[in-house]
Write a structure and sequence with these properties.
Layout: H1 9-14, H2 20-29, H3 34-45, E1 53-61, E2 64-73, E3 77-84, E4 90-96, H4 112-126, H5 128-132, E5 134-137, E6 150-159, E7 162-174, E8 180-186, H6 201-212, E9 215-221, E10 231-237, E11 244-245, H7 278-287, H8 293-303, E12 312-319, E13 331-340, E14 343-352, E15 358-363, H9 379-393, H10 395-399, E16 401-408, E17 417-425, E18 428-439, E19 446-452, H11 467-477, E20 480-487, E21 498-505, E22 510-512, E23 518-519, H12 543-551, H13 570-581, H14 593-605, H15 622-632, H16 636-639, H17 660-668, H18 687-699
Antiparallel strand pairs: 1-2, 2-3, 3-4, 4-8, 5-6, 6-7, 7-8, 9-10, 10-22, 11-21, 12-13, 13-14, 14-15, 15-19, 16-17, 17-18, 18-19, 20-21, 22-23
Helix pairs in contact: 12-18, 13-14, 13-15, 15-17
């Protein structure tokens, strides 16, 4: 099936082994021999090959033919290269050494601009003609994550002056050696329609508003803090975003909602009695509201649209979805099976343990019995069956839904039809909740059903900005762009894709309906990358460190002042330190008491600070900073060992005995140095000093 020659195909080729006879045949079928491929790789990439074991393989994918070359050494590492067997072009390259550390949190030795020059020189050497047909795509955070050892560079293919995001060149450069560690290309021969006689951008915007459009809706916002629950936010969003054909103005097939799978089960609970915590008691009290297993089983049997005669109940369990709790109630889950004529059939079903509603079921569907038959029911008739069933089992919830779409795939047997309904609240869409129901067109039987419905409060639709105001905000920040895209014929899976010219609005977030703020999918304000603009750090001894941490998002740029000589508060030091310890999971957030609580929660869980040491607005002393930094290095337990550390600071008598280990470690690692032979343990740490010690902390080889 030739749907994709994806970005990863080069790496798939690396592992595709073939027999020697196949390689011999390949030598005759390709323009570039194995010997020539080896010479090309060694010459262009500067590979000596000495001290390595060498293996090769050959791969074909349609007309795409590749030699895969691998040099391997237990001491030197691995070099992998793929060479196009028809053109001699290097299509992928990667190198790994035993000392490689892809996620080593250090401040890089070289800047992104220095690495960018290396990446460009590499591409000009390896694939000069293709490189001329690209433009660089600068990521939202150009420096990348500081815990990543490489800078990444992406160059998108341009055809007729128009972007083709499906194709491009990709290079990774080591931040500390400036060596190219990986390269691959995704580039195919397609026929591109010329941008002639197309609709205008203004016409595309008009079509977007009329046929796709912003909709006032509720968004489900996940908890930001521990023990918080899900909440809703009134927003303007695009829930059917889709490209617009640049020639016809036709809206292409929209994105679909896919409900979460149901029918998950939990393991049996322990029976040993012991002292219960408050949280455990709370759970027991809540469980008293749950219906019994027998009651849930009775509801399931009465609610299913088919008989369970002959089926044997194999398991029953009470399950709580901890990801959504308490936004979703616990459910009773059941599993039945049936063996008949050497065939096995199953049924799964779930019942809400609080409301007694059937929330999910699915059953085995034969793909043989109806294979050569004509469907007995039309889409319309199946929809009527589905809605009649939903009106019977969940009448109130079904009343508060809006029909979204119907999907089917005639290329699969049996060709099942799935209908989706989205939740509404007071006429406003809440698309994160939905009902899906699937039917067999040959029998009219309902084969699966899923109710995805959260228990959340909804903000009243009051004091919201107008739709016109929302459109202005959207179009002031996002451009309707011409793009080439790949268009797949889903009715003919084996057919190659065609390139289509479309208009696209690359927006998948929200607009706060009350404030007009642009939000990401998590409901957080979208912060556009901006250069550091502090006006009070020029000439400061820590200027370079402050700028570096700000560029990485460890220091948040709010306003034009950093106040380097001001004492840093504990809450700000904790926030900056946590961002150096656990950056992948916590994006920069606006300052508020709740945001600081998030960082305190992490710091306490990682034993950086003890709960009783929490004092958010107090200045941090150098001694306190030393202790937190050593704990962040996860060697605090060593610092606590008595009588093994010695320090020579002139003011060592001012340092408590139980803190000597912390000072010894932090000064020994050159993170906090002191001056003139003094450590100054009780002196408050300035904001400039905080930046400097955090940069040194990140430079430690952990």
């Amino acid at each position: 099936m030739r749907k994709f020659i994806p970005i990863l195909i080069a790496f798939v080729f690396l592992f595709a082994a073939v027999m020697p006879s196949t390689i011999a045949q390949a030598q005759a079928d390709t323009k570039i021999s194995l010997k020539e491929a080896i010479e090309i790789a060694k010459t262009k990439l500067g590979i000596s090959g000495s001290g390595y074991d060498f293996t090769s393989s050959y791969s074909e994918y349609g007309n795409y033919k590749v030699w895969n070359l691998t040099w391997n050494s237990t001491t030197k590492g691995t070099i992998s290269v793929s060479v196009n067997a028809n053109t001699g072009e290097i299509v992928s390259y990667s190198t790994w050494t035993p000392t490689s550390e892809p996620y080593k949190p250090v401040i890089p030795k070289y800047t992104r601009e220095e690495a960018r020059k290396v990446a460009i020189e590499f591409l000009q050497k390896i694939t000069p003609e293709k490189f001329k047909q690209t433009k660089e795509i600068v990521p939202s955070y150009p420096l990348g994550a500081y815990y990543d050892a490489n800078y990444s560079f992406s160059f998108e293919r341009i055809v007729n002056g128009i972007s083709f995001p499906n194709n491009g060149l990709y290079v990774y450069v080591d931040k500390n050696t400036l060596k190219v560690t990986s390269y691959f290309q995704n580039w195919e021969d397609y026929s591109f329609p010329k941008p002639e006689n197309i609709i205008t951008k203004e016409e595309a915007i008009k079509i977007f508003k009329e046929k796709i459009g912003l909709t006032l809706q509720y968004a489900l916002i996940p908890p930001q803090l521990e023990k918080e629950s899900y909440k809703t936010l009134l927003v303007y969003g695009v829930y059917q975003n889709a490209p617009i054909d640049a020639f016809t103005g036709e809206v292409k097939k929209p994105l679909y909602y896919y409900p979460m799978p149901g029918g998950r089960t939990a393991g049996p609970a322990g029976e040993k009695e012991m002292q219960l915590t408050p949280e455990e008691k709370k759970e027991i009290e809540a469980s008293e509201k749950y219906i019994s297993k027998d009651k849930a089983l009775e509801i399931a049997k009465n609610s299913l649209p088919f008989s369970l005669e002959g089926y044997k109940l194999e398991s029953a369990s009470l399950y709580t979805d901890t990801y959504y709790a308490p936004a979703k109630n616990p459910t009773w889950s059941f599993y039945w099976n049936l063996q008949k004529d050497n065939k096995y059939f199953y049924v799964n079903a779930s019942v809400d343990a609080v409301t007694g509603e059937l929330t999910y079921f699915s059953k085995t569907v034969s793909d043989i019995e109806d294979k050569d038959k004509q469907p007995k029911y039309t889409s319309k008739e199946l929809g009527e069956i589905a809605e009649k069933y939903l009106e019977r089992i969940i009448p109130e919830k079904f009343k508060n839904t809006k029909y979204f779409n119907e999907t089917s795939n005639p290329d699969y047997s049996p060709n099942l039809y799935t209908f989706t309904y989205l939740r509404t609240v007071n006429g406003i869409l809440a698309p994160f909740d939905n009902i899906t129901i699937t039917l067999n067109p040959y029998t009219g039987e309902i084969t699966s059903y899923y109710l995805n419905w959260t228990n959340v409060n909804f903000t009243p639709a009051e004091n919201v900005i107008t739709l016109d105001e929302a459109y202005k905000i959207l179009l002031d920040n996002y451009e309707m762009k011409l793009n080439y895209i790949l268009d797949y014929d889903y009715k003919s899976p084996d057919a190659p894709p065609k390139v289509k010219l479309v208009y696209q609005l690359d927006f998948y977030g929200y607009i706060d309906a009350k404030t007009g703020t642009l939000l990401d999918g998590m409901g957080r304000p979208i912060v556009k990358e901006s250069k550091v603009t502090f006006t009070d750090i020029e000439g400061n001894w820590a200027e370079k460190d402050i700028k570096l941490l700000a560029e990485y998002g460890i220091i948040e740029v709010e306003g034009d002042k950093y106040y380097p000589d001001k004492e840093i508060t504990q809450k700000d030091f904790i926030k900056m330190l946590v961002k150096t310890v656990q950056p992948p999971y916590y994006d920069p957030m606006p300052k508020s008491s709740k945001d600081y609580e998030t960082y305190y929660t992490i710091a306490i869980s990682k034993k950086i600070i003890a709960p009783e040491e929490k004092n958010p607005d107090s200045p941090v002393t150098r001694l306190e900073a030393a202790k937190m930094l050593v704990n962040a290095l996860q060697v605090g337990y060593i610092a606590e060992i008595p009588n093994i550390f010695s320090i020579s600071f002139k003011d060592k008598n001012e340092i408590p005995k139980n803190m000597i280990g912390y000072v010894a470690i932090i000064s020994g690692l050159n993170i906090m140095r002191g001056s003139d032979g003094y450590f100054y343990p009780q002196r408050p740490l300035t904001r400039a000093e905080a930046a400097a010690v955090l940069v040194r902390y990140l430079q430690v080889n952990k």
